[in-house]
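RECORD TYPE: inverse folding
INPUT: structure tokens
STRUCTURE:
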């Protein structure tokens, strides 16, 4: 089992990004929405580069007790401004001051990497913004490589 190392003050930088917002979706529906996102990219013949990035923007609970999540799906693409009708194009997305870990293993165990990052925040008296960026470097049912970035709220801004 590989050790999960945590690194401070990392920056995530993406260029020529296509963004698709997913609001108020159930966690169990994320894979279906990811499939739809991929099919739309294929249908439009978008030439992408780099891995898919999933931004977890937060959660809320409905009156019925169902947890609903907000996600942004981000992918870098050539000629990204040509797809304004289907996606929100972003020239440059920069997420500084992150705590970072790379997870390698069975995707069912990725929660250990999140727990280790949360422990790092706790032990170092840091505050999270509530956003999580998961860079899907390699993704299959049996093995995944995921770079996880959790931005820090700086005390200067509190």
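DESIGNED SEQUENCE:
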């Amino acid at each position: 089992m590989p050790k999960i190392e945590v690194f401070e003050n990392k920056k995530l930088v993406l260029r020529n990004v296509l963004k698709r917002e997913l609001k108020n979706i159930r966690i169990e529906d994320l894979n279906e929405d990811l499939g739809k996102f991929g099919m739309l990219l294929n249908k439009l013949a978008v030439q992408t580069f780099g891995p898919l990035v999933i931004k977890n923007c937060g959660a809320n609970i409905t009156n019925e007790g169902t947890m609903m999540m907000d996600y942004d799906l981000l992918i870098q693409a050539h000629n990204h401004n040509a797809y304004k009708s289907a996606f929100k194009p972003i020239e440059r997305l920069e997420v500084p001051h992150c705590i970072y870990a790379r997870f390698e293993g069975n995707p069912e165990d990725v929660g250990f990497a999140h727990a280790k990052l949360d422990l790092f925040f706790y032990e170092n008296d840091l505050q999270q913004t509530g956003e999580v960026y998961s860079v899907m470097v390699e993704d299959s049912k049996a093995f995944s490589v995921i770079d996880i970035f959790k931005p820090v709220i700086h005390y200067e801004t509190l």
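NOTES: The chain has a mean pLDDT of 93.
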